[in-house]
Amino acid sequence: MLRVHRPLVTGSMLLCHPLSACLVGGGRAAPGGRRGLRGGDNNGPSRPEPSASTWRKPEPGRLKLNFDGSSRHASRRASIGGVYRDHEGGFVLGYAERIGAATSSVAELAALRRGLELAVANGWRSVWVEGDAMAVVDAVRSRARVRVRAPEDLRLFGEIEKLLLLLDDMSVSHVRRGGNRVAHGFAKLGHGAARPRVWRDVPPDEVIRLLQRDAEGR
């Protein structure tokens, strides 16, 4: 069974303005270790692990963020989404919003930035970040600005770098699209969102089945 943290009405939704209104669980930090990217150091990027095909649970004491951007090529209208889950696959928080005209890389970076903002706002300091955009994952993993060239991409990447400094224990990995389907579901919801949305404790109906499959390893 898909576990949620508190029994609320299914599909409950929060509109968070300001961001502090999205605090979950009293803003307590998950236990963490050293500051910075796991498996690397200041002298260069860590060796990447092979991309997974399915979603994997984080270890106890950590939360996992999956993020995704969705860009409609004809109109260039884009939206973002993401989801936080615990070591049992339990839903903690999801978010979605539309961001107007944007490239696919801007959408991916904006989705990651929003997810990290929510981690900082809630006091979560031990986070495993995962996405299906290899270029974004590689740039964050290596902290290499040379991989990010467009002005808007550079601006977002700079904001992401500042947010990463506020985490004590952070790792990043790439997953194939099938392992990022819940985040993609939230990003699709963003296209129809009139305002930024955050779901806390109980997910929207549209992604419940996907969450169940991930929690069961299917």
TrEMBL record:
Segments of skewed composition (Gly residues): 33-42
Secretion signal span: 1-29
Keywords of the record: Signal
Region annotation Disordered: where it falls in the sequence: 33-70
RNase H type-1 domain location: 66-189
Alphabetical list of InterPro entries matching this protein: RNase_H-like, RNase_H-like_dom_plant, RNaseH-like_sf, RNaseH_domain, RNaseH_sf
GO molecular function: nucleic acid binding; RNA-DNA hybrid ribonuclease activity
Gene3D superfamilies: Ribonuclease H-like superfamily/Ribonuclease H
Residue intervals passing through the bilayer: none
Keyword Signal belongs to the record: yes
PANTHER family in UniProt: OS05G0353850 PROTEIN, POLYNUCLEOTIDYL TRANSFERASE, RIBONUCLEASE H-LIKE SUPERFAMILY PROTEIN
Name the UniProt record assigns to this protein: RNase H type-1 domain-containing protein
Organism, as annotated: Zea mays (Maize)
